Every structure is written in C-alpha cells, then in structure tokens.
Amino acid sequence: MLKGRVFLSFLSLENKMTAANSSVQDSNSSVQDSFSDGSLERFTHFRKDEFENDWEKVVERKFGRVYKVKLKVWRETCALKTTANEDYRNMIEMSKIGRMKFNYLISIYGISKDPPALVMEYMKKGSLDNLLSNHFLMWPKKFQMIHEMTMGMNFLHSMKPPILHLNLKPANILLDDHLHVKISDFALVQWEEFSSKTEFIEHLTARGNINYVPPETFTQNPEPPGTKYDVYSISIIMWEILTQLRAYQGLSMTEILIKVSSGKRPGVEKIPEDKPPECEDMIGVMQQCWHQDCSQRPPFCEIVRLTEVLSEVLKIPDTVSRGEIRKRLPEQVWNVSDSSNDSIHSLLVRKDFESFKSVLRKEHVSMLFQDNNTLLHHTVASGDKESVQRILDLGAPVNCQSVKGYTPLIVAVLHKFYDICSLLTEHGADVNLSDDDQWTALHFAVQTGDDRAVRLLLENKARADAKEKDGWTPLHLAAQNGHDYIVRILLLHLDAVDEQEHQSGRTPLHVACIYGHVDIAKILLKNGADVNKQDNLQSTSLHLAADEGHFRVVRLLVNSEADLKTVDEQSYSPLHFAALKGHTGICRLLLNKGLDPDVRTYQNWTAMHLAALKGHPETILMLEEHHGSVNVQGKDGWTPLHLACHHGQEKVVTVLLTAGADPNLAEDNGWTPLHLACNISCFPSVLQLISHQANVNAQNNSQATPLHLAVQLSNIPIIKALLMNNAQRGIKDSKGYTALTLAQRCNNTEAVELLDS
To answer: Which of 36, 159, 628, 722 has the fewest CB atoms within 10 Å around its CB?
Structure first.
C-alpha cells in the first residue's frame, strides 16, 4: 500500500520521457533575448576570442556540454558550461551566487555570450559520479566528503531566502586536486518555472535525478519543494559515498518511484563490513535525512554539526590528505563474496578453510566466477595461505588474469598478505604482469604506501621503471602521495629519475613540487633530478610550485639553482604564476633574487597586471615596493587599473590609486578606468576614481563618456555621482546621442528627471 495517493501515473510518465528527452536538444532559438536584461552587466562577460582555440569537451549531457578551456589573459584553465535555452536565465542566478566565495561552492568567473555559457572554476578530478566508480576511497575521505557537501548546502540554505538546489546528485558534486568537494549547478532548477508537479518531475527525470527525488514530490500535496527536499537528496548521495554503489541499481523509474513512495530506501547492509565504529552514527544521520516525513528531517545547520564531529574523529592528517588514490580495484576482487552458490566457493565465503581443503579437487581449479575471477583469485582474497598452497599444488595457473587483467599477486598485494605474495612468487608469479591499465603490482603497492610489499616485489625483480598507460612510474606515484621512504627504496633500483609521463610530460620532481612534498623534492634533487626540466607546456618545477603556492618548495628550488627567468609556452615566468594566484611571499622571494618585476608575457602582461586581474591587493603592494610599475600598459594599452576596474576588483582599485596609478590613462580604444567601472556598474570604484581626479567627461573612441555608459545601464547612484562631480549633460557620442537622449530611449524616467533638471 502506497503512503498517500500517488500523484503521477508511473507508466504514463515513463512513456513520456522519450519525447521529453528529444525536445531538450532544441535550445538556441532565443538565447540572445537574455542579453537584453541589464542585470547581466553586473557580471564579467567573456568573448570567444578571449579563450585559447583548443577547447576540450569533457562532458556532454542532454542539457548541455562542459568544455575545458584556457583564458588567454588569466592563463587559467576554466570550465565553460553551455546549456539549453530554458536553463540560461537560471545560469544568471547561479552566477550571482557563485560570485560569493565559499570553499564548498564552485566559483563562477562570468558569462560567455558566444556560446551562451557559464565560465567557472575547472575541477581537475571531475565529478563524484565518476570518482565513486573508479576509485577506492578510505573511510576518512568518505566522511570528509559528506561533511563538505553539508557545508556547501548549509551555506545555500542560510541565504535569505534559502537557495534551494533541487538538482543534487553525484554528477553535480565536483572535486579538486585533493578530492575536496565543491557543489555545482545550484539555482539551475527553479520550481516557479514549471506549470505543474508533473512537468517538474518530468524535467528532473530527464536530468537523471529520479534517484534523489524525495517521496513527497510524488503525492498530490500542492506545496512547493522546501529545504527538506535537498536534505533527502543528500541522504541518497551519502549512501552512495559510503557504499560506492549506485542507489536503486537495475531498477526502472517506475520501480524506484514505487519503492520511495512506500518508504523503502537503499539497503544499509550494502555498506562494507570493514566500516569504522563511527559509521553507525553516520548511518543514523543518513537515515534521519531520508525520513519519509519531511518534517522529521534535520536542517543542514544541524547536519553540519553532526557530520563535523564524525569527520574530525577520522580526520586525515595533512600529510596524507595531499595525496590521492589514482585507481580503484573492483569490489569482487576485494571480497570473496559472490552470487555463485557453488559449494566449494561458499566454503571460502564462510572461511571454512579446513572443509575447503578437504573437498578441493583438480577440476575445481578451472572454475570461473564473475568477471573471469578464478578460484585462485578468491582463495588469495580469503587470506588463507595453506588454501592457496593447496590450489597451487593442484596446478592452478599462478598468472591467471580477470577480465580487467588483475592477477592473484595484485590481489595479495592489495590485501597486504605478504606471506601469500611470497608464496605466489615462489610458484612463478610474474611480478611485472600488468592489468588492462598497465598497472603492475608494484604500482599498487607504491600507491598505498606499502613499503614492505615494495621491497618484496623489487627483490623478486619487479621493474622499478614500469609505466602504466599514462606513463606514470611507481616513482611518480610515490612523489604524488608523499611516500618519501618509498622514494628512497625505488631510487636504489633506478638509473634515471627524470622519466616523463605521457599526458603532461611531468617528471617525479614536477609531481612532488605540485603536491608540495618538499622532502621528496630534496631527495630527488640530491639524486640528480633536473631542476630546470620542462614539461609539455614548458613549465619547470619552479613554475608548478609557484602556481600551487608551496613556499618551502620554491625556496628549495631557488637554492638549487632553478632558472628564475625560464618561461613556459605562454611566456609566463614563475613570478607571473605566483602573482596570478596571489602568492605574495613567493613573489617576494623571487624578486629578492633580482628578478625584474615588470617582466612581460608575450601578450605584454606583467605580474602587476595579473595580480590586479585576479584581485590580490597584498601582491600589488609588494610588487610596487619592488619598483613594479603601476601604470605599465599591456595588451591593447590596458594598465593594471583598467583590469581591476573591468573585473570589479574594488580593493585592488583602491590600492593602485593610492600607489599612484593614473586614473586618466586611456587604453587603445580610448576607455579610461572610469569608463570601465561605469560599464560594470561598480559604484565603489567609481567613487574612488572620482576622488583621485578621474576625468568624468573623458570620451572614448566612440565619443561616449562615463555618463553615457551609466545611463545605458540605468545605474542611478552612478549617474548622480557623476553629475555631482560636474559631468556634462550635453556631450554627444559618435551617434549624436546625449546622455538625456539615451535615457529617453531606455524609458528610464528617473534618469530623465535627473538629466533634464
């Protein structure tokens, strides 16, 4: 019996989805109308020619695409998210929220008109959706991710009024280099835009959200979704993180709706048995969050408190959290449980090893289970050395591989069954046999920091320089994960330390510098690593460490005679990298070594330009102290002050003006900083510029004054400020329009009254 009358005909909804899915492809007809909204002018607009040409499509879904792009000026990789027309106005709302910086929300840089898209922070590790299926997560990391999700949602719900997500799913939980969470796609789904609950649910289903929709949505209750909608969605994601499985796997949409409406939830028994004691409390929080009665679900302000306590208990030390797990082994290799009812296999499941050995016969050796795992694979995973010995004595092929290429030796290494590892090698196990991704047992041992297994494998002739499919050697993995003791072991077996992986051309030293492992960088340099080796983008270790802000690593590299003047393919020096990211201490260290503060990129940008662009006032001050020019003109004649005004960097505008920046320098098209501040409606910067004697009547190449721009944007406070500071009403632009004419054309009554008085 369903709890409450079901609002939808499940079968009819399921039949509608084919038509609904096909209709979302037509999306570009009236996007241009969105740009007539004056509110858009509050955001940074990006033109297509501001991006490098090599766009890389990383995601394609029914509702749009995501491209990996690089901004020429920023020299920063961004994500460009295109969307269907009906979502574009909601993207504007998302960009408003995204401008409020919060650690656990994706940062929004601005809007692109061609194509219509959001320009946002690029998350190298992709979505939680991909991570859960491809990586093996440790319990502390699972708890940390859950807590960070609740932090992001608590921020959204704490707004006045609360900002509902209504689109929460693993695909919208993004991850940075160190697997920290950032929530994306908030404000894209708006309840008010749907004419009925049926239309709302059809839209969610088309997005693949049905697993995360709470039961009250499927009833005749006319109430719109509230904050408890998102709480329910988070609970299902929590289950998927704890289990690393997909909720309701294999069920049709109709079956899911019936289960959820009747109060059934994913099985808690699916959570792995090796869970820590604290997991019971986390399960309790999860179950509260998916309560059938939405009024019984806790608010995020309470969930944050509960998950924070649990996450702190399992806190990952900083030295570990900077590393990562690159690869996850399938569940069936980790566990001996299987759907097979075969009696010999069931004895392994029950760990009845004596009975197993007594009934084991030669014909059992050739048995295959799920994904071509053999009985030897499962016997190794059981951990009983005598049973492994017995099956080997019966002729089991020691180098058998599963469908993904996993060998019994790899299974033993991952379980840290050292005596079984030795037994397998004694029986001829090939220590260099790799899986489908060309990972050897040594790669797995190094990744998990298992020095005992590393020694055992190397003693048995494992190749220390083996490369997996992307060209990563065990030394790369050790450098990435901060395993300095394993680095030392590997170096005893290596002739070269500067092997480059395929995708980026990075050496182990590059990797150590990216992740800030100063001790490993020191070891590699002492063992002959080339401090000035360049990767495929011509970046050196110093570029990479400066970009990431690792001061101690930068100091080590500088003291190791790194070339401070080397530039990458965009002609960026390490100083440019550090200034762009606001790493003031690193900039000071480099400049104290005699580096020119006004060194330019091929687009004529200096470190001062880049710090102004990204809003780093402390870096601006430090560069000025080292005689960096505040009036230097870069591409198209833009000064740091132009960039700061154009991008709304109010604090930087103040610092530059105080340091002597000229507010009346015009760029190549005649725009002064005051033009740009008016053009983005940045009132504080307008006041600052006027107070520093900016010419309020300056005309650009189109003869427009700042007053013309303020009137076009209907910004009354700026219009008043300009008029109070002697802006001339009668100046005409190149089309012959005065500010009053423009106000009349825009039907702006208040502006007309101000200008006509």
So the answer is: 36
- For the record, the structure tokens of 12 come out as 């009819």
Q: Report how far residue 557's alpha carbon sits from residue 530's, in angstroms, rounded to the nearest whole number.
A: 10
Structure confidence at residue 413 (pLDDT): 94
At 709, list the tokens: 């721009």
Residue-wise pLDDT for 213-227, tens only, equals 888 887 766 677 888
Instruction: Please check whether residue 282 is in contact with residue 23, taking contact to mean a CB–CB distance below 8 angstroms.
Output: no
Nearest-angstrom CA–CA distance, 148 and 182: 8
Alpha carbons 541 and 513: distance in angstroms, whole number? 6
Q: Closest Cα to residue 294, out of 243, 239, 219, 242?
A: 219
pLDDT, tens digit, 9 for 90 and up, residues 524-549:
999 999 999 999 999 999 999 999 99
Tokens encoding 603: 């687009």
| Residue 666 to residue 23: CA distance in whole angstroms | 49
What pLDDT is recorded for position 134? 74
Q: With beta carbons less than 8 A apart as the criterion, state whether 572 and 543 touch.
A: yes
Burial (CB count within 10 angstroms: exposed 0-12, middle 13-18, buried 19+), residue 434: buried
Average pLDDT, integer, range 736-748: 90
Task: Please say if the pLDDT value at position 17 is more than 70.
Answer: no
Per DSSP (E only), the strands in 8-98 are: 45-46, 56-61, 64-71, 76-82
State both tokens at 524. 């590699």
Count of positions (residues) in the chain: 757
103 three-state secondary structure: coil
Q: How would DSSP label each residue in 174-200? A: EE-TT--EEE--TTSS-GGG-SSHHHH
- For residue 533, how many C-alpha atoms fall within 13 Å in the half-sphere facing its CB? 21
| pLDDT given at position 746 | 83
Q: For the chain, what percentages of helix, strand and coil (3-state, to nearest 5) are there?
A: 50, 5, 45
Per the rule left: phi > 0, alpha: psi between -120 and 50, beta: everything else, 703 is: left
- pLDDT of res. 319: 29
Q: Looking at this protein, which amino acid is placed at residue 679?
A: N
Contacts of 675 by beta carbon, 8 Å cutoff, 6+ apart:
698, 700, 704, 706, 709
- Grade residue 325 by pLDDT with cuts at 50, 70 and 90: very low
Give the torsion sign (CA, 145, 149, 152, 154).
negative
Element (H, E) at 121: strand 117-121
CA 264, CA 242: separation in Å to the nearest integer?
18
Structural domains present in the chain: 31-121 (3.30.200.20), 128-321 (1.10.510.10), 331-463 (1.25.40.20)
CA–CA dist 737, 718 (Å, integer): 19
Instruction: Please tell me the predicted confidence (pLDDT) of residue 351.
Output: 84
CA–CA gap between residue 376 and residue 333 (Å, rounded): 11
Label the pairing between strands 108-112 and 45-46. Answer: parallel
